[in-house]
Specification:
With about 270 residues, the protein is of the alpha/beta class. Helix content is about 45%, strand content about 15%. The protein has 11 helices and 9 strands. A 5-stranded parallel β-sheet has the order 7-6-5-8-9. α2 packs across α3, α4 crosses α11 and α5 runs parallel beside α6. It starts with a strand and ends with a helix. The chain binds phosphoric acid mono(formamide)ester (CP) and norvaline (NVA).
């Protein structure tokens, strides 16, 4: 029995975990935070203790990474991060699986992320660091990744030989990319601000920017996309885009994750 405790909307994460768990012969309960007593003030710790008695694993999608870690500290069953404001590790699993399908040597691949230094960028950088790839996060200085995320990536890279870098110039970053990745400029829970939009304009993946990349360069996006904002619609639907394969791989990567966690939990 897998519980999905979600306080933000979701298409891919919710449906891929649900379908994946059904494929494995399990059951799923979708638990919107608002409909649980959690929404009326029952503590995270009490909720985690109670649900551990009924379920075998939970996926949590929420705002605060600290709330998720507080839940995990008390939970007696595996807790999967289905996205917080800081991280999106399940997305990163699918991303690296997709990259490995289109490139035969993860230790030589160059992944370039363009745009807001957000949760998706953080987890992409961390997964690239784990597999020993080269990753560049290219953002305006004001929107670069938080210091802790970079420190963590550098710590991981020390043992894997990955190369992790930050840049601000999109043209320079694009030129080296095997994979170009972007995400929305305004994440769930953020106000749309004209100032932030203006800062990010030069980071849009459009035909012009893509013309500076290698012919073999592929385009990725975790989705949902704001077509015309961080990515041109024609690029997203074009021959270099692998965004729909990437989305499908959420299902395959997470089924393996569930198998691993549930097999271990039974030991
Ligand atoms: N990429 C992703 O996590 O999509 P959803 O918000 O639809 O789950
Ligand atoms: N950065 C985005 C990712 C959505 C899957 C957000 O947090 O809204």
């Amino acid at each position: 029995n897998l519980g999905l405790i979600f306080s933000k909307p979701s298409t891919r994460t919710r449906v891929s975990f649900t379908a994946g768990m059904y494929h494995l012969g399990g059951h799923v309960m979708f638990l919107s935070e608002k409909e649980l007593q959690l929404g009326r003030g029952e503590t995270i710790g009490d909720t985690a203790r109670i649900l551990s008695g009924y379920l075998d694993a939970v996926v949590i999608r929420t705002y605060s990474q600290e709330d998720l870690e507080d839940y995990a500290a008390v939970s007696e069953i595996p807790v999967i991060n289905g996205l917080t404001d800081e991280r999106h590790p399940c997305q990163a699993l699918s991303d690296i699986m997709t990259i490995s399908e289109f490139h035969d040597d993860l230790r030589r691949v160059k992944v370039v992320y363009l745009g807001d230094g957000n949760n998706v960028a953080t987890s992409l950088m961390h997964v690239c660091a784990l597999v020993g790839a080269e990753v560049v996060i290219c953002s305006p200085e004001e929107l670069s990744l938080p210091g802790w995320a970079i420190v963590e990536a550098k710590e991981i890279s020390a043992s894997t030989g990955a190369r992790v870098a930050n840049m601000t110039d999109p043209a320079e970053a694009v030129a080296v990319a095997d994979f170009l990745y972007t995400d929305v400029w305004f994440s769930m829970g953020q106000q749309r601000s004209p100032d932030k939009r203006e800062l990010l304009e030069p980071y849009r993946i459009d035909t012009e920017l893509l013309s500076l990349a290698k012919d073999s360069c592929r385009v990725m996006h975790c989705l949902p996309a704001h077509r015309g904002e961080e990515i041109e619609a024609g690029v997203m639907d074009g021959p270099r885009s692998i965004v729909f394969r990437q989305a499908e791989n959420r299902l395959h990567a997470q089924k393996e994750l569930l198998k691993l966690l549930l097999e271990n939990a039974e030991e």
